[in-house]
From TrEMBL:
Stretches with biased composition (Polar residues): 1-10
Entry superkingdom: Bacteria
Region listing for Disordered, in residue ranges: 1-39
Keyword set, alphabetical order: Membrane, Transmembrane, Transmembrane helix
Protein's UniProt name: Energy-coupling factor transporter transmembrane protein EcfT
Any one GO cellular component localisation term in the record: plasma membrane
PANTHER family documented for this protein: COBALT TRANSPORT PROTEIN (PTHR33514:SF15), PROTEIN ABCI12, CHLOROPLASTIC (PTHR33514)
TM segment ranges: 70-87, 99-122, 190-213, 274-293, 299-317, 337-355, 375-393
Record's compositionally biased regions (Basic and acidic residues): 21-30
Record has Cytoplasm as a keyword: no
Amino acid sequence: MGARTRTSGPGETPRTGARSPEGRPARDRAPGPPRSLRAPVATRSNALHAGAWWLWAAGLAVAASRTTNPLLLGLLVGVAGYVVAARRTDAPWARSYGAFVKLGLFVIAVRVVFSVALGSPIPGTHLLFTLPEVPMPDWADGIRLGGRVTGEQLLFALYDGAKLATLLICVGAANALANPARLLKSLPGALYEAGVAVVVAMTFAPNLVADVLRLRTARRLRGRSTGGLAAVARIALPVLEGALERSVAVAASMDARGYGRTAQVPPAVRRTTAVLTLGGLLGVCAGSYGLLAAEGAGYAVPLMAAGLAAAAGGLWLGGRRTVRTRYRPDRWGVRAWLVAGSGAAVALLMIRAAALDPAALHPGVVPPTVPQLPLWPALSVLIGLLPAFVAPLPPAPAGRAPYSPAPAGPEEPRK
């Protein structure tokens, strides 16, 4: 039998068999947003600037420092966790987010235990239990061990510990998303030496977690125990040995790249650089404290702006001493501005909400009240989800294509 042919009727588009760039017929292409609005797959050339992730996380941390409402703190943790799950890679530092979450839970437990053991200045009428009180000498007046434990006291300790835990989790989110090596490459020349030390310190914990997980998995596959003091002692030695080997490798690579070599500059320039840099960093520290503290919102912003200006001048002058070049420097593009701006928007809106309605952001402890979720602060926190949609997608692991959900097209007719 010969093949049957079908002519297109009026108003129909003839089937030409043209295919889309993805390899599917053009008529089966799934509808979606324009290609220019989609987040691309991250490559070496379009990867998001590492500083944008840290600015985003710093904005969430500032927002967390302005409230003790457990609902808002939980929402901040959820926003950070969603962005990490959507945009982290398979690198060793990207696996440290879970360790920071566990550290936050440990901080909450320690804060509650300290409140029970050492007491609290929070008055309360709901007595839970009484511990034996240890008498203290006169020079330790104001400190007590044991005594009455009230519900208001534990509630205040729980809220305070949750705030500290949220700050740690925000730092863990930045540590899991930002590439430390690319962050070091983006630092000014004047901070390169200090930046190396900071990056090594930042990567120590993620690499330590990765080594522990690798050794525990290897012991589990060999049928050996992974719990108990004996197993911990056998795992600790290879972990420390790996850390020493990495340190030696880093030192060798730094020496091969001419680390620490500087150019000659006049003494007056060196002194001016030191004064501007130290004064600017002190201003930034004081301004950061004002932003994190509830009382310093008035002087924090101008002090931080002056400190940033002085530090920028000092870093520009100090960069003249460093004789190094950057290979393919990271660009601060539109997506980096969106990611950093979302964190800054969350921080500014939360500061504004704390000034307008502080009672909504700090639930009552004496007497205890049920925390409510304020609408506008909650909506401002949700702005922090923007990086999950605009940041470049992490590359798929080797041997697996990236997954992009799309509705199924019409079925091909059977021949």
